[in-house]
Write a structure and sequence with these properties.
Bound molecules: fructose -6-phosphate
Helix content: 25-40%
Oligomer: single chain
Structural class: alpha/beta
Number of helices: 7
Order of helices and strands: EHEHEEHEHEEHEHEHE
Number of strands: 10
CATH topology: Rossmann fold
Number of domains: 1
Distance between the termini: 17 Å
Length: 245
């Protein structure tokens, strides 16, 4: 794993955006795997700035999002569909038909998982997958204990994840109980992975990722087995590591 540490969240976001936009410029038909949550929002902001100022085009870019809540209408501001529109898609020249997010409103969520895998097979593999890190080590919504061989599936969210995500909702009871997520094996098929880690609440998880063993009890640990992972971590998750960017 290639690790870059940055002095601030802003520096992390700029570094991540510059990495992604260079990849898009080099391969205008790139397939990107995208994450929602707090961590990548700064990167998306920078990508929008870059699109406006440097003209980086997303006309031929395909995107796959990691996850979506079950029984969450696209129009609900807490849906990951709405998140992506707000934080990225509506500001760039991406084609709607080339942005894929699991359909949380499908009448048959199980079938939706198979359909999503089929789309990944058809349009993939993902060239560059962006990931955030859950405080309990989850990636996507793959909670501790998820099989490393899992494909896109329905998950029951843990209390800790629902609590963490309740900051976006009026009340914790409004946080959905289930989500559709790409599985760990689906994520590991990406050619390259960029993991963003920011915020003091990720310090323990970050340490476990670096120094712990590879175990299904800590889903992110599988990344150690991927041939091409880059980690961008900001100062708040560090103890003594040197800052190089
Ligand atoms: C989001 C996702 C999650 C988040 C993780 C960290 O699509 O799949 O795994 O990346 O929960 O979330 P934040 O960035 O909000 O701390």
């Amino acid at each position: 794993m290639d690790i870059i540490t940055t002095p601030s969240y802003e520096a992390l976001s700029k570094e991540a955006a510059s990495y992604v936009s260079r990849k898009v410029q080099k391969n205008p038909h790139i397939v990107l795997g995208l994450a929602t949550g707090s961590t990548p929002t700064g990167m998306y902001e920078q990508l929008i700035k870059d699109h406006i100022t440097s003209g980086t085009s997303y006309q031929n870019v395909t995107t796959f999002n990691l996850d979506e809540y079950v029984r969450m209408n696209k129009k609900n501001p807490n849906s990951y569909y709405a998140f992506m529109e707000k934080h990225l898609f509506q500001h760039i020249d991406i084609q709607n038909e080339l942005t894929f997010i699991p359909d949380g409103m499908s009448t048959d969520p199980q079938m939706e998982c198979s359909i999503y895998e089929e789309k990944l097979r058809k349009h993939g593999p993902i060239d560059l997958q962006i990931l955030g890190l859950g405080a309990n080590g989850h990636i996507g919504f793959n909670e501790p204990g998820t099989s490393f061989s899992s494909r896109t599936h329905i998950v029951e969210l843990t209390d800790s994840t629902r609590k963490a995500n309740s900051r976006f909702f009026k009340d914790i009871d409004d946080v959905p109980t289930h989500a559709i997520t790409m599985g760990i094996a689906s994520i590991m098929e990406a050619k390259e992975i960029l993991l963003l880690v920011a915020g003091a609440n990720k310090k323990k998880a970050y340490e476990q990722l670096l120094y712990g063993e590879v175990s299904e009890d800590f889903p992110a640990s599988i990344l150690k087995k991927h041939p091409c992972v880059k980690i961008l971590a900001d100062q708040s998750v560090l103890d003594t590591s040197s800052i190089i960017a």
